[in-house]
Amino acid sequence: MTRHVARPGTGNVPLLLNEIRHALTRLRDEGAPTTLDLTGIPMMPEDTHAFDASLGQGEVRAVVDAGGESEVQETGFAGVWRITHRNADGAVLARHIEVTHVPDILKSQPVDIAAGLERLAVRLAADLAPDLVADLTEDLDRPEEVS
Fold first, then answer.
1. Residue 52, burial from CB neighbour count under 10 angstroms (0-12, 13-18, 19+)
2. In the predicted model, what is the mean pLDDT of residues 101-130?
3. Strands (E), 1-147
4. What is the per-residue pLDDT for 123?
């Protein structure tokens, strides 16, 4: 007779890992991203530890500072990202798993791209204008060659 030993915790870790497996399959086959909100899922500290250990850690980590720190960490599985949002005091506001090529928080938004383009144009004008003026002045001061 096989005896099953109950593990402490909620038992949600295998369920979450299986959901991530299905989401990764959808990403591979259909290109469809998935976000899992871990914030409302009951997990005891040992569940969180087991879950994080099961996912492992990948090579990419980014921190976004916008009204509080958001950490984006690639897991040991390509396409699976762990994202933790904190408030200005450092308290965890939300934890997500994004199954995607690149997490949305790392993608530049069109309005930000437009603003960046305007700032770059101003910087280029400020940086290049003195050189352009000097070049034009030099050309005006140089006598024309007669052929």
1. middle
2. 86
3. 34-37, 61-65, 69-74, 80-86, 92-99
4. 82
